């Protein structure tokens, strides 16, 4: 029997996102089988299978012991050193086709909600508006093509959904295979 999972401010439901799953295998850090294991990214020069229990992620011991990070710091330049440390070294990362990155809003890291398609984005108009604006800035000039692409999210592309931990605004970026 395992204890309640630790809470991660910047990734509040790592089980739903698939970053942590039930497993009967030992943590590479504490060597204990606690019933849960991390399955997403870990950046380090060490040879480690990135199989950590959520508790070794939450307390920072996995990142410290293996001199690694669960998220890339790119894009997190505007956040405080404490927030940067918490996101990169004490928060589970997430699966992505391309290099995953964390979004920022209100000068702090946003919370990763999960991988979503168009229907989930449409239910959060703030995220859909922000994503349209971002995509136009990156060269999507034809509105019909942009809408065609967005309405087919979930096929060969998806959106990574975040929520600001300060104001609640939803944000997203596109991840494609």
Please give the structural blueprint.
Layout (H helix, E strand, L loop, with lengths): L19 E3 L13 E3 L15 H5 L2 H5 L15 H9 L14 E2 L2 E9 L1 H5 L2 H13 L5 H9 L5 E8 L5 E7 L1
Antiparallel strand pairs: 1-2, 3-4, 4-5, 5-6
Write structural notes for this entry.
The protein has 177 residues and is of the alpha+beta class. The protein has two domains: 7-95, no CATH class; 103-177, no CATH class. Helix content is 26%, strand content 18%. It has helices at 54-58, 61-65, 81-89, 118-122, 125-137, 143-151; strands spanning 20-22, 36-38, 104-105, 108-116, 157-164, 170-176. The strands form two sheets. Strands 3-4-5-6 form a four-stranded antiparallel beta sheet. Strands 1-2 form a two-stranded antiparallel ribbon. A hairpin with a 5-residue loop joins strand 5 (157-164) and strand 6 (170-176). The termini are far apart.
Features:
single chain, 177 residues, alpha+beta, 2 domains, two-stranded antiparallel ribbon, 26% helix, elongated
What is this structure, in a nutshell?
This protein has 177 residues and is of the alpha+beta class. The chain is 26% helix and 18% strand.
Runs with pLDDT <50, length 5+? none
**SSE order:** EEHHHEEHHHEE
The overall pLDDT average reads 92
Determine the structural class based on helices, strands and strand pairing: alpha+beta
Count of individual beta strands = 6
Distance between the termini: 38 Å
The figure for the number of domains is 2
Question: For the largest beta sheet, what order do the strands appear in spatially?
Answer: 3-4-5-6
Tell me roughly what share of residues is in helical segments.
Answer: 25-40%
Envelope shape? elongated
Instruction: Kindly provide the radius of gyration, computed on alpha-carbon positions and rounded to a whole number of angstroms.
Output: 17 Å
Largest sheet: 4 strands, antiparallel
Number of helices: 6
Question: What is the beta-strand fraction?
Answer: 15-25%
